[in-house]
Amino acid sequence: EKEEERRIIREAVEKLEDRERLIIEMRFGLFGRREMTQKDVAIELGISQSYISRLEKKIISQLREEIENKI
User: Are 21 and 32 in contact (CB under 8 A)?
Assistant: First the structure.
């Protein structure tokens, strides 16, 4: 069952736009990346931390909707 959950999450993340996927991978340490703070992600991408926060909320909402549609 856990493997199925991982597959669903992986597929949902893969459907994101490139920048959105990168932000989520960096923030949560997905797919072999190290977990980073919003501040670190903002510095790495050259954008503000508040913008990262807004994007993260939007992306998580998209992921939640995609995952709920699969379950």
Answer: no
Q: How far apart are the first and last CA of the chain?
A: 12
How far is the C-alpha of 65 from the C-alpha of 63, rounded, in Å?
5
| Pair 23, 52: CB distance under 8 Å | yes
How much is the average pLDDT of 20-45?
96
Coil, strand or helix: which one is 18? helix
- Answer yes or no: are the C-beta atoms of 25 and 31 closer than 8 Å: yes
Quickly tell me which residue has 């960096």 as its tokens: 26
What's the pTM value of the predicted model, to 2 decimals? 0.87
Over range 41-67, report the average pLDDT.
97
